[in-house]
Design a protein that fits this description.
Helices cover 76% and strands 6% of the residues. The protein is mainly alpha-helical and 136 residues long. Belongs to the C19orf12 family.
Length: 136
């Protein structure tokens, strides 16, 4: 296993320990379904229809929504090798280290570096993958 893969797996473990998850793009779809339900209910039944339509729309959106996914799972299974390499480079740059081994060792013992690495992971997922991270 290459150093990049080991480092990426270490980042995945850190993300799992902090319970970082991404919202899958169903949030916008769910809001749309709820709004359509409320609109149709309001057109048909007035104020009470608005309430009923919004409730039914929200329940339908919940039933159709995807779950949140673990950031660690995405790092391990979904990122391409070039994306993993970019993530590792982003984290190393953020924490100020140039060698993989030294960076991994210091992140294990220094909570401030671990926090900086988590922020770099958030930034990478937001800017490069257009995914929103929730959690610690």
């Amino acid at each position: 296993m290459s150093g990049i893969v080991r480092f990426a797996n270490a980042l995945a473990d850190i993300a799992d320990n902090e319970d970082l998850r991404v919202t899958v793009k169903s949030s916008v779809k769910g809001a749309g379904i709820t709004a359509i339900g409320a609109l149709l209910g309001g057109l048909v039944g007035g104020r009470r229809g608005l309430l009923a339509g919004g409730t039914i729309g929200a329940l339908a959106a919940t039933a159709m929504a995807d779950d949140f996914r673990s950031v660690g799972d995405i790092i391990r299974n979904d990122l391409t090798s070039s994306q993993r390499e970019e993530l590792v480079e982003s984290v190393m740059q953020a924490v100020g280290y140039t060698t993989l081994g030294a960076c991994m060792k210091m992140m294990n013992v220094n909570p401030q570096l671990r926090s900086m690495a988590l922020q770099a992971i958030r930034d990478f997922f937001g800017h490069n993958l257009d995914l929103h991270i929730i959690g610690a």
